[in-house]
Design goal:
TIM Barrel; 8-stranded parallel β-barrel; 11 helices; globular; SsuD_RutA_monooxygenase; Lucif-like_OxRdtase_Rv2161c
Length: about 290
């Protein structure tokens, strides 16, 4: 099982230090969350908390995940980065293809593109994109971005996007993996149909096990059951070596954690404490050899 450190809701001026430390102690990846802005009044409930409330306020720090990946990639050499997840519905696919390709090249193919639709109507409408038919439009966006990132002269004529022959150079020298987020049946089908992996929001181990089984069934249904596939998970009720062993057994391939939050220090812990938590976590789980003994 791989280990990824999430930088959710952390101060921007700490990100480079976090990346360097995570690489030094042995983490595989950094997960980069996405939020465009905080609207004072939200038209929809946040879908990943029990009461629909947001876990942040107007002063919580966020950074554009693609810019963060490029910056953190410049101070590391082996650490990977992926968006977790970028909300496609409020953005333009050709502009995103340019940005994703740039990050992939600047990080020497150490970037994965985690994608979702987005939950807030305001993010769509205030960025000039329709909220209606967002799922079908995001499906087409994924197709467009993948096509352009593949390199060469391409054209596309779809229901939502239409362009004649164009080329963006340089194309990444390796395919950018796409990780699809979401817990609904349409999201799981999208992940099984077009994704190189699926990424969760906060879930229990029981929910993860059920979802992973469903995804595996869907992958077989779409004729993709034998392809490599990542299951990136944020688990809220399994901790310690035994808990991590259970997650591996149900099929989690990438465990997304925030070590200083797990240590009870909160999102705004001092940077030195965060470094200590990263090292302590790595010693306990990454270097302890528990996976070899399982």
């Amino acid at each position: 099982m791989k280990y990824t450190c999430s930088i959710a809701m952390g101060p921007i001026d700490e990100l480079l230090d976090i990346a360097r430390t995570a690489e030094e102690v042995g983490f595989d990846s950094i997960a980069l969350p996405d939020s465009l802005f905080y609207m004072e009044k939200a038209a929809a409930d946040y879908p990943y908390t029990a009461d629909g409330s947001r876990m942040w306020d107007e002063n919580t720090p966020w950074v554009d995940p693609l810019i963060a990946a490029a910056a953190m990639g410049a101070v590391t050499s082996t650490l990977r980065f992926y968006t977790n997840v970028m909300k496609l519905g409020s953005r333009n696919p050709l502009l995103l293809a340019r940005q994703v390709g740039s990050v992939a090249n600047l990080t020497n193919n150490r970037f994965g593109f985690g994608v979702g639709i987005g939950w807030a109507p305001e993010e769509f409408e205030w960025c000039g994109q329709p909220y209606e038919r967002r799922g079908a439009r995001v499906d087409e966006m994924i197709e467009v971005i993948r096509l352009v990132l593949g390199g060469g002269m391409v054209e596309f004529h779809g229901k939502f996007y239409d362009f004649d022959r164009l080329q963006m150079s340089p194309a990444p020298s390796q395919p950018v993996p796409f990780y699809v987020g979401g817990h609904t049946e349409p999201a799981l089908r999208r992940a099984a149909r077009v994704g190189d992996g699926w990424t969760s929001a906060m879930m229990t181990a029981e929910q993860l096990a059920k979802t992973i089984r469903r995804l595996n069934d869907l992958r077989v249904e779409y004729g993709r059951g034998d392809r490599p596939f990542e299951f990136q998970a944020v688990c809220i009720d399994r901790f310690g070596v035994d808990g991590h062993r259970e997650l591996a057994q149900i099929g989690v391939t990438d465990n997304i954690v925030i070590p200083w939050v797990l240590d009870g220090l909160g999102f705004d812990a001092p940077l030195g404490k965060k470094r200590d938590s990263l090292k302590r976590f790595a010693d306990t789980y990454i270097h302890s050899g528990w996976q070899e003994r399982s």
